[in-house]
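Record 1 of the preview.
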Amino acid sequence: MTKAASVGEDRAARPITAITADESTHWPTGMTELDRVLGGGIVPGATILLSGEPGVGKSTLLLDVAAKVAKLGTRVLYISAEESTGQIRLRAERTGAIQPSLFISAETDLGTVLGQIERLDPGLVIVDSVQTVASSSVDGLAGGVSQVREVASALIRASKDRNVPILLVGHVTKDGTIAGPRLLEHLVDVVCQFEGDRQTSLRFIRALKNRFGPTDELGCFEMTGDGIAEVADPSGLFLSRRAKAISGTCVTITLEGRRPLPVEVQALIVQSNAPQPRRVVNGVDAARVSMLLAVLERRAGIRLGDHDVYVSTVGGIRLTEPGADLAIALALASARSQQALPGDVVAVGEISLAGEVRPASAAAQRVAEAKRLGFSTVFDTACGELSTALAQALFGE
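->
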């Protein structure tokens, strides 16, 4: 049976009215896009987990964050369990991340990592990565369930006790989930996902969990030869540049947090020779596309059961909200009829199983962004039904 321990005056519980918000206020990192996702910056004593596919640029991003924070006068400790200090120095020279307040250490032992934190007393700690650090007091190889649990718990305790924020890099499995026990995501304060197609230079960061801010914001970055650069105004990055309109394309305005973004949806429909027609999607939800295909056939009379259907977004961005339904449906109908939509058309709206066009959230903000970008025609809930929207968009009826 666990006995009650004596509690010192410094750890005694205090009334909530005696605790000021200044004790846990956000402080900016110097990287505006990251601060947007975190809710204004990093909170002292917070533990932030950053996950992403191999080669997407996690280490480059965090080295840039470390350099910017160090430039503001804060002592930063960057622990690398995957690279040597010489390799980090080479990458820092290439990206311009050389700062006298940035300290680098290549360690894989948890005890040594904690000793480095105690010796240096930094204002920010970055550990790359949590799956490659191991504790000598726990059996098993680094990256195992027991090792990841012990390493994460020890680093979180150090973060809370010293009131220093810690950024942890997390590996992902082949299906995109964070490697290690699910407990890891519960223990940390913030879980961020760094994503992007390695074939393109665009990168996005999202907060999947955030105890100190929103979880619906999106940060945009671009990988360059000199490191990673912020994209302050991404409008136009997800649109094609062409001289004339082409069938099978439609633009929508998606909402990432409080940021409206124009995104072009492209569809291609071809006659299938296979018993089971193909349904290939990229950047959109496959189940949502299947539902829209059923609605198009039942409510609008557009039969696609014997055709291969391909749907994709431009620029590698993912559309996850139902407000893009109408644009996907219009792109599919345009591809099927080979009738191009006018170049000044934007479609925003959710489509129900009854074929109704339902309003999307923050519709006024989306329309205002469309007008700012030069789109003069907006198809939304004014259409009423999907069949009406198709007739107006494709044939002007």
